[in-house]
Write a structure and sequence with these properties.
heterodimer, A: 415 residues, alpha/beta, 8 helices, 27 strands, B: 114 residues, alpha+beta, five-stranded mixed β-sheet, 2 helices, elongated
Chain lengths: 415, 114
């Protein structure tokens, strides 16, 4: 059996940044396991630009952003294996994996980071009625076919969901000669970044239908048409608004969920809002020594924030491995209040950090509102916010000396 | 009068700009500059792929090294789609020099060794 101090599962943005950070903090024996042919993860198929604005203050494409991290990795003595599938993790931190060269192997590790990213919600997740025909696929899969393999999945496209991947693919398919007839979004606002609405839809006169969704999928051997209709405030179809669209492809961009089947069945506690594991201030899950970061923890909108979170995770793993995490507890639990979807981390041992970042997401667009930071029922801080959007993760940093044992709640208030 | 969504920050202000270049609807000063540039000369970066002969990849991702005029997007795409390259390619190698005489190069955004 092999022995490592740290096994990182996933060689994408979270895996690379956390491994590099742990190494720089003195963790010696690190192994990264990646299922694809190369390191870099989903960045490699995101060939558009806009990455790195926060971290590098310049605008990079996905492959360029990945390249920087892969180069950083390769100048360090960190082991990695590609085309390697992790089959099982045990609560005592054994990792079972297999690949063509090593066969079936078991590694005993002292710590594990889950950096397995997220997966796309599919037709089944939102139950679109109608015929089960080819031609219905997720936007990220279509992106892989086009940008990595060089196949255009269709010529007449409709997109359901206005998440960023859907918007990016609307432009990409148009540039490659397909006709994108429209994008339907069930919510009254778009879930994508406004610059993507402008540069991906408006530039190419692609209409965005807010409060609309797909009512039916029709086709015999292949997708032939879809029925799109308007919904009311309770998401019921408004009768008489049905419109048929003749298309050969329906692309879905209807949300992402952390991809953590490896740890769900070993009793890791999961946050019902994020669908990722519950974590403490060290990004440690309910199993000691098992950490999670990046999209496996909660879905991020910008890779820069994945990298920053992963760097903190690597640092926390180093502190865990050299026993410098405090064992005496001063425990603070977090809670999402009015208009918030979730707050991370879920628990904080205040003895462990001088400053702590709370990440959260609002449940609807909010303009000129306030954030109330409430500790044990008392208002600690009121922060004015010009705007907050569901598509943008929010973050506030607080000194732990201001906080006390108990419950911290973040809520939105009008004034 | 034209309506625009400002893309300078994520707030996404809905701007209006009239024939005299007066901007309204902007939350901050940067929106004004954005609207004027967007009306007079909208520029865009283009990212795409070209065919690569390689042992491990079929498509090489590429990018303009500077923004190009918006109305040239499809012409530049056509030029990009004519190209076939051979590995090895290093990141930021020039794939098309001075595309369509726009003073802009198409460069590789990934290293492909074999």
């Amino acid at each position: 059996m092999m022995n490592y101090d740290l096994v990182v599962i996933g060689g994408g943005s979270a895996g690379l940044a956390s491994a590099i950070s742990a190494f720089d903090q003195g963790v010696k024996k690190i192994l990264i396991l990646e299922k694809d042919l190369y390191l870099g993860g989903i960045l490699l198929q995101c060939i558009h630009n806009g990455f790195g604005l926060t971290k590098y203050k310049e605008e990079l494409t996905g492959p360029e952003y990945a390249d920087r991290y892969v180069n950083e990795l390769k100048i360090r003595a960190i082991d990695f294996k590609v085309q390697t599938m992790v089959l099982k993790i045990t609560p005592d931190l054994q990792v079972h994996f297999s690949n063509a060269r090593d066969g079936y192997q078991i590694v005993q590790s002292k710590a594990i980071i889950m950096a397995t990213g997220c997966s796309e919600r599919t037709r089944g997740a939102i139950n679109i009625p109608g015929d089960r025909v080819p031609g219905v696929l997720t936007a990220g899969l279509a992106q892989k076919y086009l940008n990595i393999d060089g196949y255009l999945v269709g010529k007449r496209i409709f997109i359901l969901g206005s998440g960023d991947i859907g918007l990016i693919m609307a432009r990409r398919m148009t540039l490659e000669g397909a006709t994108v007839l429209g994008v339907a979004e069930i919510m009254p606002y778009s879930n994508g970044l406004s610059r993507n609405i402008v540069q991906c839809l408006q530039d190419f006169n692609i209409p965005l239908f807010l409060k609309h969704t797909v009512k039916r999928i029709i086709g015999k051997h292949h997708l032939e048409k879809i029925v799109v209709a308007e919904v009311d405030d309770h998401f019921n179809f408004v009768s008489g608004t049905e419109r048929e669209w003749e298309v050969d492809t329906l692309m879905l961009s209807v949300g992402l969920i952390p991809s953590i089947p490896l740890i769900e069945n070993i009793g890791v506690l999961v946050n019902p809002k994020t669908k990722g594991p519950l974590v403490d201030e060290s990004f440690m899950t309910s199993i000691p020594g098992l950490f999670a970061c990046g999209n496996a923890l909660h879905v991020h909108d910008l890779v820069d924030f994945v990298s920053l979170e992963a760097e903190k995770t690597g640092l926390a793993v180093a502190r865990y491995l050299n026993d410098s995490l405090k064992q005496d507890y001063k425990l603070l639990k977090t809670q999402a209040g009015k208009d918030l979807l979730y707050v991370l981390p879920n628990t904080v041992n205040l003895n462990n950090l001088e400053r702590i970042n709370f990440n959260f997401r609002v449940s609807r667009p909010l303009y000129d509102s306030y954030l109330n930071i409430i500790v044990n029922g008392k208002l600690l801080k009121k922060i004015k916010k010009a705007f907050m959007l569901p598509a943008e993760m929010e973050s506030i940093e607080l000194a732990t000396s201001l906080l006390e044992e108990g419950v911290l709640e973040i809520e939105v208030a009008d004034a | 009068m034209r309506e625009l969504i400002c893309i300078v920050c994520p707030r996404g202000c809905r701007l209006k700009i009239n024939d005299k270049m007066m901007v309204t609807g902007n939350y901050c000063k940067r929106g004004e500059t954005y609207a004027r540039n967007e009306i007079t000369k909208p520029m865009r970066m283009i990212t795409s792929t070209v065919v690569i002969e390689s042992k491990i990849l079929d498509r090489l991702p590429v990018c303009t090294d500077k923004p190009i005029p918006k109305e040239q997007i499809f012409a530049v795409m056509e030029a990009i789609n004519q190209v076939v390259v051979k590995a090895p390619i290093k990141i930021h190698d020039v794939i098309i020099e001075n595309v369509l005489n726009l003073g802009v190069n198409i460069i590789a955004t990934r290293t492909v060794e074999i």
